[in-house]
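On clarity, I found the account of how folds are encoded harder to follow than it need be. What matters is that the chain and its backbone geometry are given together, residue for residue. For the editor and my fellow referees, an illustration may be useful. For illustration, here is how one protein appears when written out as sequence plus structure tokens:

___
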Amino acid sequence: MFDRLVQVLVCGIAYVRIADNGCSVIRTRTRRDESVTAGIFTELKQNLSEVYDKMIGLELATLI
């Protein structure tokens, strides 16, 4: 499910294009809403920014 959400959010792929028998459009949107409510994407953004800072050395917090 996570990889499908990444495809939608990062690549801009439509929900309908990633839907299949194992995962409907409605289920994908429901999981997205649950993830947003739980704060998963906020935490993920913070973690990725910290890793990027360590790997690249660019402090993204000063740019955002």
